[in-house]
Amino acid sequence: MKFGYYPGCSLSGTAKEFDLSLKETLSVLNTNLEEISDWSCCGASSAHISSHLLAVALPARNLIIARKQGLNDLVAPCAACYNRLVTTQHELKLDEKIRVKSEEILEEKYKDGLEICNLIQLFQKIGIERIKELKKINLNDLKAACYYGCLLLRPADITHFDDKEDPSSMEEIVKAAGAKTVDWNFKTECCGASHSIPHVEIVEKLGKAILDNAIKNGADIIVTACPMCHANLDMRQKNIIKHNPEQKSIPVLYLTQLLGIAFGIEYKKLGLNRHTIDPVPLLKEKTKKFAEAAA
Amino acid sequence: MRIGVFTCHCGENIGKTVDCPAVSKAAADFPGVVHSEDYKYMCSDPGQNLIKQAIIEKNLDAVVVGSCSPHMHERTFRKACSSAGINPYMVEIANLREHCSWIHDDIPSATAKAIDLLRFAVERVKFNEPLTPIKVPVTKRALVIGGGISGIQASLDIANSGFEVILVEKEPSIGGHMSQLSETFPTLDCSQCILTPRMVEVYQHPKIKLMAYSEVENVEGFIGNFKVTIRKKARYVKDELCTGCGLCFQKCPIKKAALSEFDEGLTTRPAMYVPFPQAVPNIPVIDKSICTYFKNGKCQMCKKVCGRDAIDFDQQDTLIEENVGAIIAATGYKLYSIDKKPEGSIYQGYGEYGYGKYKDVINGLQFERIASASGPTSGEILRPSDKSVPKKIVFIQCVGSRDESKGISYCSKICCMYTAKHAMLYKHKVHGGEAYVFYMDIRAGGKMYEEFVRRAIEEDGVKYVRGRVSRIYKENGKLIVKGEDTIAGVKVEIDADMVVLATAMIAQQEAPKLAQMLGVPYDKHGFMLEVHPKLRPVETSSGGIFLAGACHSPRDIPESVAMASAAAAKALVLFGSDILEREPVVAKVNESTCAGCLYCRKVCAYNAIEIKEIKDRQGNIQKVVAYVNSSLCQGCGTCNATCPSKSVELIGFKDDQIYAQIHAFSED
Amino acid sequence: MEQMRDTFLKRVIDITSQDPSSCYQCGKCSAGCPVRDFLDDPPNRIVRFVQLGLYEKALSSSSIWMCAGCLTCSSRCPKNFDLAKFMDALRQIALQDKIEPADKKVFKFHKAFMKQLKKYGRSYELGLIRDYKLLTGDFLQDIDAAPSAFMKGKISIAPHKVKEKEKIKKIINRAI
After folding, report:
1. What ipTM was reported for this prediction?
2. Are B541 and B531 in contact (CB under 8 A)?
3. pTM of the model
4. Which of A257, B40, B264, B506 could hold A21 in an S-S bridge, CB 3.0 to 4.6 Å?
5. What CATH number matches the domain at A2-119, 1.20.1050.140, 3.50.50.60, 3.40.50.970, 1.20.120.530?
6. Cβ contacts of C33 on chain B, cutoff 8 Å
7. pLDDT tens digits along A250-273
């Protein structure tokens, strides 16, 4: 199987481990990625604060390149990029005016027809059964809180996938990888997103509520599919702990890292060493029984 | 032919956009027109007199009126002309209001169009023929579909007037939703106490034939002459033998076979059951889908214990045909499913409120059961999860209603009142308990309704919070209700023990199917439509079929009862005469040109086309032709359009009449 | 006044393709807003300001800058009113009309972000943080997180550049 690949700025920067673990995992699943050549930023939240046209034109450039490259399927693992790309595709399809204006400033024609998927949809396409077949490491002792964040599922009438209030598709993948999942309340709550830099206090407050709820419901780790969520929950967790001495820490993993672990891929190759809250001791502890049995 | 043209201003409705005097003047010059005048209100008494006078003085033999839609006043003008000696079918209406003045704003062009419309009508009326209405007899029996409070009221009113009623109810007992309610607003009288005497009255009434656990399968015929097929579903109990002692279902070993429909899923019921102790008729049914005997041939416990030998496992559904003259649809409502994924529903679910996920998030009818003396907690307010008394309770209004994103734009009308009642009952029963109501608007338009809501707030201390709730989730055993009070502009977050959702009233799922069977139009939500929203609110566009209660739109008990009595009155008006007159607009076959292909028979929606054999003098069949049964024909014209040899004509809408209009248009 | 109302509303409707009059002020947006505690005005009040023609009040509220764009409000709105899009429109109009942003930090963050975009065609974290700090003068923020981020290779030293970066710059300039 082959998918077009739009890494987005985060996966080529702060979230390098997302990119690494994605590629490692997909190679086990026999799936190839073809990066969009010379892709540019989707504009994130900054573009649509400045101009609606820009918010459409920036992702549109990438969609046009992907089509020119002959791609039919495109994966955008970053939830925020995914949201921008599908929303743009939707608007270009329905809003003639904005399409014409975008084509004007891009000096190129837009052609519809690309199938854009997020990380979860990617694994659904590859097949959840394949994950079950290929898992090697027993993660039975590990309880994960699946965190979707806001942009993976919204707007529901554009993304058309899973239940927008009580999603379960990530749980299915995590369960296929052999780990347990917990039912918790903050699956789709916002982590504060881009306020990470201008308003740390907001991100810390929202992040703490999310971490607390996951811990209270018995989770050992939080699993996410969004680099922004990861940064806010992992990188900011240190400060949350600093400001709240009672706070327990909880590792935050990318879904691809969890799959990689289940496939028996070396921790380092999955970039597990790059996290602020080191997940390795917990993972060793939770897989000890299995490792001993294997030995 | 001497034609008179009368142009109506309809007050300002036509007069504002159409220059009526100019129109009238232009019409005077149409060939064949010998009289033309305009008047402010042609439908008024003086207006009608103008027409009558002109008919007599100018010796007119056809009349064209330029006015509102023929739906409104065709009958008025026909009657006026008829009283002045003209056959009523020599009158044509040109619709200058809906087809012209209301949809245009430029006076000169609207005036020109009005002149055209009148000219077309004048050309058409030249081909009109005097017609006589068709006379049909009236069967003076009524069918009432649905045995809730509306159906009960309508049945009793008709039966008490001395006419027979067949009351069909699909559930095992009549009583409908009202039998599930605790107390009723704004008087707080016990629902069952006022309802059950009526149910018994229905059962014992010599003029009412009650068919519970039955469904209408087919409806044929027309006003005054319907033939209805009713499926009497097998109860597997012989009703003539059963005494209603209850031993059978008490001994049924499958005790918790299914969730109780009557208790809205809060309790279970056996495979054999009566819905509730006061059921009418008090005859149990066996739920075939879960009965052990039907599943694997074993058990028969009910049969063993029945002292009357009334159990009959071989009972079959029976189809019963009834002839009636009027039909009242009273099929009621159901609650919008607030589960997160309603299957097959046109509506979205309400995942954000956790209904179906959290046991203590319930809907309004479930709260009724909890608050009801006949309910699972004998009227004590206990929450479903652990049967504890909720110390803090939250009521949320407009769940589904007024929520376009879920697919329902309308207001369910009764929730403001029943929520106030719920909160009040809670406060009366749980001393020291806290009750919150989240609302958007309080719609308490009814006698003593506003006072009732104020009483809940001012005397019983219910806290009303103005705003919708965004989300409900469970934390530390509490239901966290995240709301906002938009008046104070503050966040309101309540850790509740129980939440009651006032969910929207929607039409019964089968309502559209029934409406199609009855030929009654319905809206996109499945509510049946009246023929005129103001002046004919219980009649439908199908003659002889009337509406009562919530099958028309959300409504409360007093309104349903009033509507039911109104529908009964309409049926009784029909039963007041022995013979009905019908429009003579029916199809007619030209037997000499008909080739007997019978395409018309295939397309006729009313089964009105029969086969007629043409025989010679010796009695040998010469050919076969189509024949229209004029009592069944509804005058839709489909056969007319289908006939390959142009051998079918629609009386009153004959081809030459229509062509005359078209030619008048193309001459322009 | 009436004329200004018309132009303002027209601009909002042009950007969002929805009329603010469709909001019936139920407050569900505010009830579910994750940054509700940090807002001067709840989101429904911002819509109300616009409904009443009090545009200055809407544009000068910090709430329009504090919106995180999480779409919770939009996804739960019973009237299908896309409030997040509406907030975008107000920010765009505030920028066009040079209205002093009530929250300068958010504004400066986006400004810094756009600067990276214009320069490289992609976002470049180090440049973003540098430019943001230059704009706000808050040099101490995140000083504790930064070293570990560098050590873990989270923040790369050199920017990733798009080959067609001149074209991106042109797109941005033409769109705004």
Report:
1. 0.91
2. yes
3. 0.89
4. A257
5. 1.20.1050.140
6. 470
7. 999 999 999 999 999 999 999 999
